Each structure stands twice: as structure tokens, then as C-alpha cells.
Amino acid sequence: MITCPNCKNEALDGTIFCLECGAHLVGADPRATQSIQTSGMGGLKDKYIIADTPPITTQAWGTLHIIESGQLLPLSERKEYTLGRVNEGQPTAPDIDLGPYRAFENGVSRIHAIIKRIENRIILIDLGSSNGTFVNGVRLAARVETPLQNGDMIALGKLKIQILLSYVN
Amino acid sequence: MPNPPGDLYAILGILRGASQNQVKRAYLKAVKKLHPDVNELPGQTELFHDVQQAYDILSDPEKRARYDSNLPPVSQSKPVLKTRIQYSRSSIPRQEQSQLVYALIDILPAPNTPPTHAPPLNVSLVLDCSTSMQGQKLDMVKATAIQIMRRLRPQDIFSVVTFSDRAEVVIPSMRASDLLRYENRIHALHPSGGTEIFQGLSAGYDEVRRYFNPASVNHIVLLTDGRTYGDEADCLNLSEESAALGVGISGLGIGHEWNDQFIDTLAKNTGGVSMFVADPQKIQELLLQKFQHLATAYAENVALDFEPAPDSELVFCFRIKPEPGPLETKSPITLGAIPRDGALTIMLEIRVDSLSKAFKSMEFINGTLTATLPGSGSATPAPLTVQLPIADELFPEPPPQAIIQALSQLTLYRMQERARAEVEVGNYPKATQYLRSLASHLMSQGERSLAKTVLFEAEHIERKQTFSNDGDKAIKYGTRALIVRPPEGEDQP
Questions:
Q1: Can you give the pLDDT at residue A41?
Q2: In what order do the strands lie in the sheet with B157-163?
Q3: Which residue of A24, A27, A144 is in closest CB contact with B463?
């Protein structure tokens, strides 16, 4: 057996290229690790590069800007909020009721999405809504964390909301 | 019946040393193709009798011995194919553990073969005319079809079949010189209905069969942008029948909805290729290229028939040149065509399981190459033996550059295949891991745009757990296109 120097996968004797990671195993100089610039690649954002942004305040860390009505909803004490609309006779209610902002007409589910603050990151998770959650026009997979940046445009169904974050200073 | 019936071994397409088992298999294969019940072509009943007679003699050890004693020495039958094998190592170490051996095989015209004429074509163009083809796609296809018709040589035979819910023979098989009057039929094509590939394929097959001639390049070129439902098994059965007769099938898929794995299997069964265009503008380029390949074949229907050796297994087989594509790993393998001005190159990956016994050398594949030479019919079969001496000690040695070259690209293609397989079983983290490794290799080779596509797909899978529209196909055919060996200088035929 040969052990791939790159990914430590075991390969049969005589293997020339590791089938697991594609590294050259025989008859070549070990290849230096290549790093790839992902910034500036059409539409791709590296979700973990947050070093440049200043820390987000712990109190009153964000605001939801309902585009249609111009209303501002503060996000302050809690670290996470569920978004949705209150329905008569429904046992669980979302933390933020979007009912007054024509949520039903815009196709917002009763428990539609959740917005969380983890340290210096703000993430949005779609909770399996019927009409989907979009960030800057791109639909999110259900129950997958998506990082948000200041000014990102969210849509719950057709209800458009801009996220505004408050930074220290 | 022509007399004498010629070399009985050549009639069955086997070598003089063929085992009884091989004789029987070759006979069954020939019967399937030539039996009067399935084959009404004029002149082929006689061929069937020849085969019958050859089998009667060769299957009986006594008669065979008598026949052999009257045969001229082997050297008199001129080989028409030449093979050249490069191995990843010059010997294999004796060990119990499994190990891998790579063989890069060039199959080319034998030196000093008399120059043959460019073979006449017998091609059916089978076009998808379902509603989804409407617009630019169909316009492009029409323009290309007409261009192809105008470029054909007088001896070529051509037909056009369209299909949607049912098939229609728009232009029946005819000589190229008569085609001019039918151009308006191509202009009049109108899209409607669904996609039922079998209907079209089977009508195209019938058209090619009407003028079938072993001395021509017999081929079906299928164009589709959709997925066929429920008749894929019928199509695959047809492709086996068509391979047995010697009719190749190539497929060109447009856009993201067609099933590339299905078309790949069709092509693999018959020695054809599958191609992909995302942009209708490219249809013309690819189709003209395909016809160019067809018209410049030296040998067609090259096939490798072998008995698997014990203790080793052919795990992967791929055609590197002239048109890259995956191949079968079980005998018989349909390899495709040998171009007039180059070689048919294939890569084999063989796993050797146990080498503890006291052999001096190991034979992995002991097979026979058969082919038809357009212009002169069946070629004398050539033996192909893939074997290496067994060494008691391991000598570290770098593999030949050509093997490294070919494998480095092939590995990228295989990583993409693995990523797709992982997506299919729902193992998304593994799939994105493969894609990210693939992207970094592509980057280091300067394939920036393909690398970006791959990275984008990795992100897409993370978020949506599936490839984007035609991302999987773009990566597959993108990495496949990288697999072309650089031209070798000196010993081109």
C-alpha cells in the first residue's frame, strides 16, 4: 500500500495518481500546496472572511427594514429571532410577527426562517418554508446556515426585508 | 458461394491459435449478425454460409487439424493493425497484496499498408424535433444539417430522421448527389411534441441498415435536448444489435435536460462518442468535427475480445484518442475507429490480486483485435497481449512520461465522476471535497474558467444539495476535453 502524502488515503501499489485527491504519487516531485484566490470570483463570496469587518454590537445589534412599508424592526436583546406570521389558533408563534406587513399576501410561512447572531456573525436559516427564503435573490436550501452581510436583501416569499447591522462605533 | 472460402479464421475474426471457446464465441457473434432471419441484406446469406462452414471445420478438432496442415504459413497473411504498448512499470514485484498496472495502448495502421481511399459514409442524422428545440437550437441544427449535406462527397449515403412523440423519415437514405432537392425538407422542420428517442433511433437504424456495407463507415448521429422516458432499455438493446452489425452511434446533447449517462452508454456499446453543448452556437462546430472524424477513419468497429486472466481484473478502460470517452471493461470492448493519420489510444487500469505463485511473467489480457477496414472489408485480426515479467525485487522507476501525461488528465475526469456518484447517494460533503481538489488541480494547470465552474458547483451543492442546471455536464465534458495527448514527433505513421 502507498499512503498519499497529501490526503493520507491508502492506495494500491502501482497507483500513479491518488484517486481521492488527485495528487501525483509516483515519479514526480511532491507538489507544493496551491492556494486559490476565491475573492473576486463571479458571485462567490467566501463566507468565512469576516476579519475586515468591525465587531457587531451586543445590544441592539441589528434592524430589519421592511422595504414595502419602510418600517424598521429592531433586533436587540435576544441572540436569535424566528420570523413568520401569527395565525389564529396556532400554538407556536414566531418571535417577530410579520402579519402587519402583509405577510400572508406575500407568501410568508407561519414559522418561516430564523435569524441568529453567533459572536460576530449573523446567519439566516430557512425553516422549510413553502415559498422559500432568498438572500440577494438567491434561494437558500432549507435548514442550511447562510451568513448575512450588512445591507443584504432578504426575501421571505415575496416580502422583502433589508438587514442592517450595527457595528461598534 | 465464392470458392475457396478464404481463410476460415479471418471469416470468424479470430486468430489461428484461438481456443475452442473463442471459436464458439466468434461463431455465435457472427450468427447474431448474419442469420437470414435478422439480416435481409443482399449478399449476406452467402456470408452466413461461409461462417457456418468455417465453424463446422474449426469446431471439430480433427477437421481443424487437417485444415491447419494445409494452411500457408502465418507470415503470409499481412497484418493491417499495429499495436504499441507502454506500461507504467517494466516489471511487477512478486507480492500477495493487490497492485495496479497501467497500460497505454496505441493501435495504428500497420506500416507499409497500401493507402486506402477515404471510406464512403453511410450516416443517418437523427434529430430531436420536440417542442423544447424551438428557436435558436433548431435553427442552428437545420443550418448545420444543410451544411453537412452540401459537404458530402458523391459516394456518401445520408439520411435524416426526426423524432418527437413519433419518428419521421424526412430524407430517406440516398446518395449525396441526389440530396440537393431535399434541402427544403430540412427548412420545413417544425418542432412539436415530446422526446421519444427510441422511435428516432430505430428509424435511423433502419435507414442505415438499408445501405449497410462493411466497406462504408456506418454511423448514426443522434441529436437531442431532452430526456426520454421509459424507452431507454429499448434504446440500449438496439445499440447492442447495432454494434453487432457494425453501426456506431454517437450522441450530441444540447442544454441541461438530456441524460448524459444514457447517451454515454449508447456510445460506449457501439464505439461512438457522446458530446455536449451548452450553447447552441457550438452545435455546428461539434457536428462538423464529428463528420470529419467519420470521414477520415482508417479502420472502423475496432473491438477487443479477450478472456479475463485469473488473479487480475480490468478495472478501468478509457479511450484517450482520437475522441476521448469511457469504454466497457468486460470483453468484448468496442473501441471505436482508428484515424487515417494517427492512432487509436486507450488506457487500461488493471488490478493484479496475488502474485505469489512461481510464474516468470503475468499475462493480464490475451485478446484479439478485430476491425473492419472501410474500402476493403474485414481486417485480419491482430493479437493483443498485455503482459509483464514478474520481478522478485521492486525497482523504483518513474513511469513513462506519456502515461503520466494521460493519467494526470484522466484522474481529473475520474474525480468529477466520483463527485457525481457521491451527490447521487447524498454524500454532499464528500462530493464538494472532490470538487474542491479538482478545482485546485485545474487551477495549477491554468484551466481557470473550468476551475471556477467547479468551485461554483461545489458551493451550489453545499447550499442546494444538487448540481446547478448543466454544471455537472459542463464539468464532465470540460475535464474530458482536457484528455488529449500532446502530439508525438518521430514515429507517426
A1: 54
A2: B167-175, B157-163, B121-128, B217-224, B248-254, B274-277
A3: A144
**What's the gap in Å between the CA of B437 and the closest CA on chain A?**
6
Cβ of B411 within 8 Å of Cβ of A12? The answer is: no
Instruction: Say whether the peptide bond before residue B4 is cis (omega within 30 degrees of 0).
Output: yes
CA B62 distance to own-chain centroid: 38
Among A36, A123, A140, most B C-beta atoms within 10 A, so best to mutate, is: A36
Q: How far is A43 from chain B (nearest CA, A)?
A: 9
Closest-approach residue (CA) in chain A for B465: A141
Cross-chain CB nearest to B452 (options A15, A42, A144)? A42
B351 touching A (Cβ < 8 Å): yes
B415 CB within 8 Å of a chain A CB: yes
CA distance B301 to B318: 16
| Residue A68 DSSP label | T
The pLDDT value given to residue B365: 86
Cell 463507415 found at: B217
More confident position, B488 or B373? B373
| pLDDT per position as a tens digit, A126-160 | 998 889 999 988 888 888 888 888 889 999 999 99
Site from B444, B448, B466, B482 to mutate, A interface, most A CB atoms within 10 angstroms: B444
Strands A153-156, A133-135: pairing kind: antiparallel
CA distances from B294 to B88, B128, B151, B152, B374 (A): 32, 21, 13, 12, 11
Owner of C-alpha cell 449478425: B33
Whole-number Cα distances in Å, A38 to A53, A148, B449: 18, 18, 13
